[in-house]
Specification:
DNA-binding; Chorismate lyase; Tscrpt_reg_HTH_GntR; alpha+beta; GntR family transcriptional regulator; WH_DNA-bd_sf
């Protein structure tokens, strides 16, 4: 394969349409409204299903966004650093306005698996903080944070759900995060998650699992973050050391 074209040179019809659509997107610019499927099919002299397949690819790639009944050219993806910075800091660094919508803040038993990760008993209580993540009022993800109630007893009363949890534990409680273990995988959202984020269930998502630690190695939090694959990418710096 070279530039997406098989060596035998036979280009799938939808792929050729996709290439022409990408040129059209560059002409329209960010926020530009795409013509209807019917108009595009007539312009490219192909079936509407061929146009639909090309549009699906561009939606997954994050080049397009659904807006009401229309489709518009999307802006660049958010680039979140893979480091111990908060979602708030990462989004602000790109000139966007971060926000969150609270879904749940409740207490529940840790259970065996979560208890082992946080090094507490399975019967110990944890706070479960679930929030929809926003960037410029656009829903881009869903985050669930779990922390021991015994360690953060006042969380339910004094924490602002629209603010950074990292900022809260650092500035108000003096807790410093030093290291983290993180795993990233691609998944499809559940129907509930897709509804909360406002995306089709078939849209690929980036799922991050993180356990963060203090300098002495004590776990502070367990986080499950689900990000829209069409609106997010992640960056990191590598070295040989």
């Amino acid at each position: 394969m070279r530039a997406g074209i098989p060596e035998h040179g036979r280009v799938p019809k939808y792929y050729a349409v996709k290439a022409r659509l990408e040129a059209l997107l560059d002409e329209l610019g960010e926020g530009g409204t795409l013509p209807t499927e019917r108009d595009l099919a007539a312009r490219f002299e192909v079936s509407r299903e061929t146009v639909r397949q090309a549009l699906r690819d561009l939606l997954i790639l994050g080049r397009l966004q659904r807006r009401g009944r229309g489709t518009v050219v999307a802006g660049p993806k958010l680039e979140q650093p893979l480091s111990l910075v908060s979602y708030t800091e990462g989004v602000r660094a790109q000139g966007r306005v971060p926000g969150r919508t609270l879904i749940a803040l409740d207490r529940l038993p840790a259970g065996a698996a979560l208890g082992a990760q946080l090094r507490i008993a399975a019967t110990d209580l944890v706070w479960h903080l679930e929030r929809v993540l926003l960037a410029d009022d656009e829903r881009v993800g869903l985050e669930s944070t779990y922390v021991p109630v015994q360690r953060f007893p006042q969380l339910g009363g004094e924490f602002d759900p629209d603010s950074s949890f990292y900022g809260y534990v650092r500035d108000r409680l003096g807790v410093r995060l030093a290291t983290a273990e993180e795993k990233i995988e691609t998944v499809l959202a559940t129907p509930r998650e897709a509804l909360l984020i406002g995306t089709p269930p078939a849209l690929p998502m980036l799922l991050l699992h993180r356990v963060s630690y203090e300098p002495d190695g004590r776990p502070v939090e367990r986080v499950r973050s689900l990000y829209r694959g069409d609106r997010f990418s992640f960056t990191t710096r590598l070295s040989t050391g």
